[in-house]
Predict the 3D structure of the following.
Amino acid sequence: MGSNVERLALQDAMVFLGAIASGTEQAIGESANSISYLAGVNLGRKLSEGIPHTGDIEQALVYTREVLDKNDYLWLFEPFKTHDQESIFQEGDDGTEVMLVFRDCMIRQSLFRFGHTQKGSLCNMMYGFFAGALQNIMGRDSSLEIIHAGENACYKKLLVRRDHE
């Protein structure tokens, strides 16, 4: 986003979306999370069409960041390695895990401006976006799990599942 005026316009639109999410969550309960997740998957797939395919998670994250930036989505994230990790990427039983820090997130900012709690349906839309984008870019399933939701940043675990062999 180029200017503060554009950013404020985006935040105003996101506050409106926050109001819709809040009302939807009140009206239909937990189903709102599933609906938002699926909407995010569809958005991630659509916006990542034509992105080169890669099996490299680090490159896939670069491509995902480029897709977000190109579409003016303020979900700025970066991989994070704790002091006791040898690598950013950790191999687990289900696949490869990487911790991500989201420092500038339009959803978190909108929820705060509207006065709605984090970890709801709008956050699930982001999880779906990553799942859809990484499905296109890597051809693999993934999940994004919130570890900590804070005022200044969120800390999440991305799991990119192994290929089905």
In short: Residues 1-164 form a domain with the Muramoyl-pentapeptide Carboxypeptidase; domain 2 fold (CATH 3.30.1380.20). The chain is about 50% helix and 20% strand. The mean pLDDT is 82.
